[in-house]
Amino acid sequence: MPATVIPGYYAPHLIYGPGTDARRTRTPDHGRMEPVKPVPQDRAAEPVTEYVQRVNRRIRGFDHRHPLPWDLTLTGFWVLAALIDGTGDGWRSVAHDPDVPVGLVVVLSLALSVPVVWRRGHPRRALLLTLPAALVSAWSGAALQAALLQLLLVHHIALRLPLRNLWWAVAVVTAPTCVSVARYGDSAGSWNQQLGSQLVAIGVAALIGITVRTRRGYTEALEDRARRLETERDQQVRLAAAAERARIAREMHDIIGHNLSVITGLADGGRYAAAKSPDRAAQALDAIGTTSRQALGELRRLLDVLRDDDQDGTGPEPELAPQPALTDLDRLLDGVRRAGLP
Q: Are 311 and 23 contacting, i.e. CB atoms less than 8 angstroms apart?
């Protein structure tokens, strides 16, 4: 039986499995190998945008691999800013009590700045650590810029923890404001003014955290979907490859089994006819040669389809044959009868 090869079909990725670089395609009309042309991109990325994205990827990659140095750097910056603010006189112009000792201001600034180092791993504990310093600062009348770091911790709580934690975070951050307004009265501003501005700042910090959190969740969902689709595609390719190999194995079994049966019958008949009729023995040998060459040709056509040595499509194309139909049955039977079998 001739090799069953579908005309105009060439799919090395189904034969060799996923990852095969199939650079040749077969046109359905003429069956010629043509190199695959790369798909042109509409427009390359802008140099500035590409540079910014590359720098952002590097920073995020370093931050993901080494979070502690980044946290220490940011915390060190805020500690330095707190020391400059505490040792200077700028805070006195906005303080409710300008006579607060400088040493106390420095200690309070450090107490509000150092917990920032745990803002990603333990944002809730970090916010609780800042609460005593914030309450003492509000009671003493010192207005410290480091108190704004509580908003950064609120941002990380909204980003990393369940949203129900925002309720007590709002209570922790607004408590110093309530203490300041209750102690200093009109000099600290009205309740509506102080609490209103504080709640707006907390809302902005929490909203930014929720937005970043939503974006990360959406990105992770897209990445997970892409991974699942890639896995499903690889599984489909492997299943198709297994089916293709099974089909080829059946084809080779048919070719070898049929032709070996014919050759065996001719060899046995030729051995018995050699003593009485040398001419019949010679005919049997000729039939054996013809059948063997036919089998080799069919196997060669089948195996040539599996070869992918010529990647550029410039080499000789494999010889293909159409799949046998019922009209080829008479030709097959005639060949068997000529070989001497009934």
A: yes
How far is Cα of residue 48 from the mean position of the Cα atoms in its chain?
25
As given in the structure block, the two tokens for residue 97 are 């009590």
**3-class secondary structure for the chain?**
CCCCCCCCCCCHHHHHCCCCCCCEEECCCCCCEEECCCCCCCCCCCHHHHHHHHHHHHHHHHHHHCHHHHHHHHHHHHHHHHHHHHHCCHHHHCCCCCCCCHHHHHHHHHHHHHHHHHCCCCHHHHHHHHHHHHHHHHHHCCCCHHHHHHHHHHHHHHHHCCCCHHHHHHHHHHHHHHHHHHHHHHHHCCHHHHHHHHHHHHHHHHHHHHHHHHHHHHHHHHHHHHHHHHHHHHHHHHHHHHHHHHHHHHHHHHHHHHHHHHHHHHHHHHHHHCCCCHHHHHHHHHHHHHHHHHHHHHHHHHHHHHCCCCCCCCCCCCCCCCCCCHHHHHHHHHHHHHCCCC
Contact between 31 and 9 under an 8 Å Cβ cutoff? The reply is no
Instruction: Name, in order, each residue with C-beta under 8 angstroms of 217's C-beta and a sequence gap of 6 or more.
Output: none
CA dist 131 → 135, 246, 252 (Å):
6, 71, 80
Nearest to 295, CA basis, from 248, 249, 257, 334: 257
> What are φ and ψ of residue 33, in 5° steps?
-80, 130
- What pTM does this model have? 0.56
In this structure, are residues 193 and 149 in contact, taking their beta carbons and an 8 Å threshold?
no
> Quick one: pLDDT at residue 306?
64
Q: Convert the pLDDT of each residue in 9-64 to its tens digit.
A: 333 433 334 444 433 334 344 444 444 444 444 444 567 788 887 887 787 777 77
